[in-house]
């Protein structure tokens, strides 16, 4: 089935004759979303979804015999719904309503889940949501810091997808459009302007569509342990990694041009200055003693998609630069 995208909540009509399983976090209650039909709610999961959470959700799904799934929230909520669907082994229709402009999870066929402290990806064509609602009003309640982190996640995804070894003409075009929208709407988005919120949500979706083709690269692979070790949101962690990895690779002037710069050196400087402006900084509790743990945490398979090979010594050096220790 081809994914269908809607720009208002009229799509909820397709729940009318279904028994709906709603996956959402606690923030759902503050969004003011009117669910017009009965549903079973599952919210018992963390911001970094765990395998045991997914198993608990699956148990409730089976007990209530729901035949339609709706995920409302950020990437964690959508990934949790995908994970529950994946482990159910039944291709129930899934509708995704992103409430952040960042992860693009509503546009991908994979999900992230933690098990025993390690982050894993599950992938299946059936995990691509059948229906997507892009409703910018839901962004208005986001805290400033969360808006910054999710915006940076979308920007990093667009850049990484562009230089990915799996990049195609289509994925690069998605990335180009996403980068343009992010740069043109950044200020208005952070001021909570309606038009900018809509455009940022579209940019996030485009970045997700790009990543759906290419998957991510080294900055994402290196970001995961920063999240678990220092409690950094994903967008914050990956944004710290990207300019350091890019400087090591010394290439991709085409991406720099999309960012409005002449070459990769200028683009990297722009990115680092943006992080300073947004006050997205290295963790204050980092120590040089953490470098070995971080270095050995990076999944080699996740690095395979990176266009430049990174060995252990290089990764350790990059982490030292990222943490400024």
What does this structure look like?
The chain contains twelve helices and eight strands. With 325 residues, it is an alpha/beta fold. The protein has a six-stranded parallel β-sheet with strand order 1-8-5-4-2-3, covered by helices on one side. It has a two-stranded antiparallel sheet with strand order 6-7. The N and C termini lie far apart (50 Å).
Topology:
Elements: E1 4-6, E2 20-24, E3 39-42, H1 51-64, E4 68-73, H2 75-88, E5 94-98, E6 110-115, E7 118-123, E8 131-133, H3 144-163, H4 169-190, H5 194-214, H6 218-230, H7 234-249, H8 253-258, H9 264-278, H10 291-297, H11 300-303, H12 312-323
Parallel strand pairs: 1-8, 2-3, 2-4, 4-5, 5-8
Antiparallel strand pairs: 6-7
Helix pairs in contact: 1-2, 3-4, 3-5, 3-7, 4-5, 6-7, 7-9, 7-12, 10-12
How would a textbook summarize the main sheet? 6 strands, parallel
Please list the strands of the largest sheet in the order they lie side by side.
1-8-5-4-2-3
Q: Could you spell the SSE succession in H and E letters?
A: EEEHEHEEEEHHHHHHHHHH
Shape: globular
Number of strands: 8
Estimate what percentage of residues fall within beta strands. Answer: 5-15%
Overall mean pLDDT stands at 95
Parts with pLDDT < 50 across at least 5 consecutive residues: none
User: What percent of the residues sit in helical stretches (DSSP H or I)?
Assistant: 40-55%
């Amino acid at each position: 089935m081809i994914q269908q995208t809607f720009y208002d909540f009229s799509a909820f009509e397709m729940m009318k004759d279904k028994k709906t399983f709603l996956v959402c976090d606690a923030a759902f209650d503050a969004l003011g979303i009117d669910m017009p039909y009965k549903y079973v709610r599952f919210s018992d999961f963390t911001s970094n979804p765990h395998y045991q959470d997914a198993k608990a959700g699956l148990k409730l799904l089976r007990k209530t015999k729901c035949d339609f799934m709706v995920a409302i929230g950020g990437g964690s909520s959508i990934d949790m719904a995908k994970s529950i669907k994946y482990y159910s082994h039944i291709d129930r229709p899934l509708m995704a309503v992103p409430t952040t402009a960042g992860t693009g999870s509503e546009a991908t066929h994979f999900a992230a889940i933690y098990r025993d402290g390690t982050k894993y990806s599950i992938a299946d064509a059936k995990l691509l949501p059948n229906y997507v609602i892009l409703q910018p009003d839901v962004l208005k309640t986001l805290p400033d810091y969360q808006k910054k982190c999710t915006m940076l996640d979308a920007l990093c995804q667009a850049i990484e997808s562009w230089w990915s070894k799996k990049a195609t003409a289509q994925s690069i075009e998605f990335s180009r459009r996403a980068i343009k929208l992010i740069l043109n709407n950044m200020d208005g988005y952070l001021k909570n302007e309606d038009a900018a919120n809509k455009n940022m949500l579209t940019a996030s979706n485009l970045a997700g569509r790009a990543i759906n083709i290419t998957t991510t690269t080294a900055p994402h692979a290196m970001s995961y342990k920063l999240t678990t070790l220092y409690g950094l949101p994903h967008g914050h962690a990956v944004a710290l990694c990207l300019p350091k990895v890019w400087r090591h690779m010394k290439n991709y002037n085409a991406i720099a041009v999309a960012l409005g710069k002449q070459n990769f050196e200028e683009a990297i400087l722009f990115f680092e200055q943006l992080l300073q402006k947004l006050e997205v900084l290295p963790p204050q509790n980092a120590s040089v003693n953490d470098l070995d743990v971080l270095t050995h945490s990076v999944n080699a398979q996740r690095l395979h998609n990176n266009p430049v090979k990174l060995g252990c010594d290089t990764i350790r050096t990059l982490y030292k630069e990222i943490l400024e220790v």
